[in-house]
Design brief:
The chain is mainly alpha-helical. The chain contains four helices and no strands.
């Protein structure tokens, strides 16, 4: 059983809570001047400590104008497409198709480094957009993007080692 709300906790214009117990929620519509009944943090959004760390790491302040959830999805699709193109070139076109048509050998690592670097930058921007709009799927999408970044980093190291041989 919870105690009756104090004067500060009570919704304005609400009838007093029954003294002997009962429902602690005021069953009246809040007045238009009472403001939002939902308590939230600065900017209207509560962020976890992990969210704040990632926002600080990615240098995101508050939600920039023009950032929407649709733009975040578009950014995610674009970065995944660039990563897919890079993998297709690296594992299908350059090893099998290019030698068959007489395309220059050894161009694979150079193209892999260029496209892989660009894909990593796009993945970072994807994570930034999802966190900038406080999207509800920011953590799962960021996990996927981070895994792709790690994969691309390994491929970049391999491409650089091929060039240095």
């Amino acid at each position: 059983m919870q105690p009756a709300p104090t004067e500060e906790e009570r919704v304005p214009d609400a009838p007093p809570a029954p003294a002997g117990g009962g429902c602690p929620v005021a069953h009246v519509a809040p007045s238009a001047t009472a403001g939002c009944p939902v308590v939230s943090g600065p900017g209207g959004i509560r962020r976890s400590p992990a969210d704040l760390v990632v926002r600080r790491l990615l240098r995101i302040r508050e939600r920039p104008a023009g950032f929407t959830a649709a733009a975040a999805y578009g950014s995610f699709r674009r970065s995944m497409l660039i990563s897919a193109v890079r993998c297709t070139l690296t594992y299908v076109v350059f090893p099998f198709v290019a030698p068959a048509v007489g395309f220059a050998a050894g161009v694979g690592p150079v193209v892999g480094i260029v496209i892989g670097s660009f894909a990593i930058v796009c993945d970072v921007f994807t994570i930034r957009r999802f966190f900038a709009v406080d999207h509800r799927w920011r953590w799962p999408v960021s996990t996927i993007a981070f895994c792709v970044i790690c994969l691309l980093a390994v491929l970049l190291v391999q491409d650089v080692s091929h060039l240095l041989r």
